[in-house]
Write a structure and sequence with these properties.
InterPro entries: FAD-dep_OxRdtase, FAD/NAD-bd_sf, Gly_oxidase_ThiO. The protein is α/β, with parallel strands linked by helices. It has 9 helices and 18 strands. The two termini are 29 Å apart.
């Protein structure tokens, strides 16, 4: 019997288990496959709320709050585990290649600046290429965001799994959930392929599979899988400095000798294979921004299933009508970015019942 049972060992589940265990809560973490083996390991590790969220509102606020937490959160993880998560908050560029894109980008810059965000408007090719010399000569303007960046998501996942183990989290991988246990109208745990598990609180954080988990109780939430395909090329001979976002793709130089490029979005059910069409879309969408990519050595490509919701916001908090059950899911393509703030706020809920800050994201809006 644990204080809390977390179902799903991706970035959200691992982060929540880590945060709860730091607070002295006993946690069991259940994963049907490998730790972070789905969307979390298939991500590019972007930490870019000003790029991801196109209008002011609760999602941008959530992303910015999580970004603020990242430096201390990552440093504590590295110190505790001795691992490196390759956090880089050295800025990124969102670039425009056409007059139409310049106008759209200028509109975005205006509201971001008026809202008080630290962004700079680079108005010509020379200014943009001063930040990133390898950009195409076709670039006309860009928003430079000096405090956003990226992290090595695979290293982060390893560090979180190690930290959970060191802090006494009961880690159960290869454990398939086949039922949710209810007693006296209260959820008391789960039934699994390796036997029953019981806890005072159960949190579903199983990404694209979260909806399937809740269906075991007859609860329907609008979480569906969206496939994202991503590739990596070698950075040898391509000394890219800065993350580049364009309208047709992104380019992310990593500290491990790779440049990660992507990404597609398509409805494929639970099929995560890389397709030739997907790979072609990635290459055609990114090479116009950095001509040097034409000669880059191809390394690998992969796919992951992003948990999307009907309104684009995650589901965070208690499941109405089911005492002892909550959900932390539906982060779509921003699970890595939102993991610190999700862990903090969901731990506050599990530990103290706090839901005020979760208000825009409560599952009750769909139930």
């Amino acid at each position: 019997m644990s204080d809390c049972l977390v179902v799903g060992g991706g970035i959200i589940g691992l982060s929540l288990a880590y945060e709860l265990s730091r607070r002295g809560v006993s946690v069991s973490l259940v994963e049907q496959g490998e730790w972070g083996g789905q969307a979390s390991s298939a991500a590019a590790g972007m930490l870019a709320p000003l790029k991801e969220f196109t209008t002011p509102g609760p999602m941008l606020d959530l992303g910015m709050e999580s970004l603020v937490l990242y430096p201390e959160w990552a440093a504590r993880l590295e110190e505790f585990t001795g691992g490196d998560v390759q956090l880089s908050l050295d800025g990124l560029l969102t670039v425009a290649l056409t007059e139409e894109e310049v106008q759209q980008l200028a509109d975005k810059y205006r509201w971001q600046k008026e809202a008080g965000h630290a962004v700079e408007w680079l108005t010509n090719t020379a200014q943009v290429k001063e930040v990133e010399p390898l950009l195409t000569d076709q670039v006309q303007a860009a928003i430079y965001s000096p405090y956003e960046g990226h992290i090595n998501n695979r290293m982060l996942l390893r560090a979180l799994a190690t930290a959970c183990q060191m802090q006494g989290v009961k880690l159960l991988s290869g454990c398939v959930v086949n039922g949710i246990a209810v007693k006296g109208g209260k959820v008391v745990g789960i039934e699994t392929s390796t036997g029953p598990l019981r806890a005072a609180q159960t949190v579903i954080s199983s990404g694209a599979w979260a909806g399937m988990m809740l269906e075991l109780l007859g609860v329907s939430v609008p979480i569906r899988p969206i496939r994202g395909q991503i590739a990596a090329v070698s950075s040898v001979g391509i000394p890219l400095r800065t993350v580049i976002f364009g309208t047709t793709g992104y380019i992310t130089p990593k500290k491990d000798g790779k440049i990660v490029i992507g990404a597609t979005e398509d409805e494929s059910g639970f099929q995560r294979d890389v397709t030739m069409a997907g790979l072609a879309s990635i290459l055609q969408g990114t090479m116009p921004y950095v001509p040097a990519l034409h000669s880059a050595a191809f390394l690998e490509a992969w796919g992951g299933l992003r948990p999307a919701t009907q309104d684009g916001k995650p589901l965070l908090g208690p499941v109405p009508g089911w005492e002892g059950l909550s959900i932390a899911g539906g982060h779509f393509r921003n699970g890595i970015l939102l993991s610190p703030i999700t862990a903090k706020w969901m731990a506050d809920f599990v530990e103290k019942g706090e839901t005020e800050r979760l208000s825009p994201f409560l599952p009750a809006r769909f139930l």
